[in-house]
Task: inverse folding
């Protein structure tokens, strides 16, 4: 039996982040650094990691998926056929789709529909993540701010842990 990720890799679906935020996103993604910067300055190793964190942010804050035509506001940063999504993330995206669309939706198991929903959630969460990372505090690094945002989101989702 093949991994769930193989289903996503079988076709080309673009992963999208807001194009207007491209420069700001790249400030926090290590793969876009010309030099080896520390994780403290660039807390996300790859854009897909930033994308996934943006999705988690949107879900934790119960944000509505970003509307409009994705091609107008979004920029593809990679395609699913390139194997960037692992089986665990693909499975999680499918669970999110069932939760958001409902199990009766005829397209709930379509990779195209799952990725579209994920892109829209990333589009909704991205500005929140960037705002949190951009707060100026000379005592903290972008990694500190990322971890603090993650902690605050976790507290929203599981307040008594």
Result:
């Amino acid at each position: 039996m093949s991994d769930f990720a193989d289903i996503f890799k079988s076709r080309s679906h673009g992963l999208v982040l807001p194009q207007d935020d491209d420069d700001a996103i790249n400030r926090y993604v290590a793969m876009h650094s010309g030099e080896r910067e520390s994780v403290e300055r660039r807390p996300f190793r790859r854009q897909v990691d930033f994308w996934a964190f943006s999705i988690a942010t949107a879900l934790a804050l119960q944000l509505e998926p970003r509307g409009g035509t994705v091609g107008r506001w979004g920029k593809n940063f990679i395609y699913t056929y390139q194997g960037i999504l692992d089986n665990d993330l693909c499975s999680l995206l499918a669970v999110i789709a069932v939760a958001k669309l409902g199990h009766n939706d005829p397209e709930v198991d379509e990779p195209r529909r799952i990725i579209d929903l994920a892109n829209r959630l990333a589009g909704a969460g991205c500005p929140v993540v960037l705002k949190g990372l951009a707060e100026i505090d000379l005592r903290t690094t972008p990694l500190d701010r990322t971890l603090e945002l993650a902690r605050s989101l976790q507290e929203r989702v599981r307040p008594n842990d």
Summary: The chain has a mean pLDDT of 90. The radius of gyration is 16 Å. DSSP finds seven helices and two strands in the chain. The helical segments are 4-9, 22-26, 47-60, 70-73, 87-101, 111-134, 142-157.
